[in-house]
Structure formats: structure tokens, C-alpha cells
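Q: Please design a sequence for this.
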């Protein structure tokens, strides 16, 4: 499970040194995909397969399933961390998320999310009040 927030940097080759606390879960490989709100999702390989098994099982006639499959799989990048725990974030994915050098990596339980710092700050500012007013029923399901 991925928890917490860290603020690493991309190196000059577009590599992200995975935070040490997450490396054990990612040693067998990662899949990096576009996420919602213009962040990137980083899954373990097994986590990606589990998460998207429903898309694989969806009928080809489902337009939403086709669209989601194309968007997620078509832009996905799989990688194995090097000996220093680094993975490459390809230019197309860096552009999608607006990443330059500084990053925010958020543990989102089943995945990591990689954000451009000002986008993460704006997201938090825009959504904190909504979280504070969640109904008890919603919170009961979450917690």
C-alpha cells in the first residue's frame, strides 16, 4: 500500500528516483499511465494487471471500455527500476502532466500519483472543502 507524500526531482534524463519507502513494492516493475486531473498514475505491474482486468474483460462493443483502454494502454509505459530505484518518465507523459524538474509523489493506496507541484497545490485547495463536508454515509464506506 502506498501512503504519504514526498517531493523528489526528475533528473536530467527524465528519471524519477522512487522514494525508498515504495521501492520494495515496485522492484518487479511499474506501469506509468496518464491519470485524471493531469497527474500520472504509477502502478506495480501486478497492481496494473489487477486494476485493469475489468477492461480486458469488457466487451469490445462497449465504447467507454474501448476509449479507456486506448487512453490508458496506449500511453502506458512499463519499466523496471534500475539499481538506484529510478524509473524513466517518457517525454509524452511528462508533457501530459506538466512535469519539469520538481515533483510531488502522492501515495494513493493502490498506486502512486505524480503531480506537478502547483497543480497539486491547486487540486488540494479546490477540493479540501469538499472533503471536509462529505456525508457520513460516504465516509463510512471510505473508512
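A: Design:
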Amino acid at each position: 500500500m502506498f501512503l504519504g507524500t514526498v517531493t523528489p526531482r526528475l533528473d536530467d534524463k527524465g528519471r524519477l528516483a522512487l522514494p525508498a519507502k515504495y521501492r520494495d513494492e515496485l522492484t518487479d516493475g511499474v506501469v506509468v499511465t496518464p491519470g485524471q486531473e493531469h497527474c500520472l498514475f504509477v502502478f506495480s505491474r501486478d497492481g496494473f494487471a489487477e486494476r485493469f482486468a475489468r477492461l480486458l474483460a469488457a466487451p469490445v462493443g462497449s465504447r467507454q471500455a474501448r476509449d479507456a483502454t486506448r487512453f490508458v494502454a496506449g500511453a502506458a509505459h512499463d519499466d523496471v527500476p534500475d539499481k538506484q530505484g529510478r524509473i524513466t518518465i517518457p517525454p509524452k507523459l511528462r508533457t501530459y502532466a506538466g512535469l519539469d524538474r520538481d515533483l510531488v509523489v502522492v501515495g494513493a493506496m493502490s498506486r502512486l500519483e505524480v503531480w506537478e507541484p502547483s497543480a497539486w497545490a491547486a487540486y488540494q485547495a479546490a477540493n479540501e472543502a469538499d472533503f471536509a463536508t462529505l456525508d457520513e454515509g460516504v465516509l463510512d464506506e471510505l473508512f
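Q: Thanks. Anything notable?
A: Residues 117-132 form the longest helix (16 residues). The chain has a mean pLDDT of 92.
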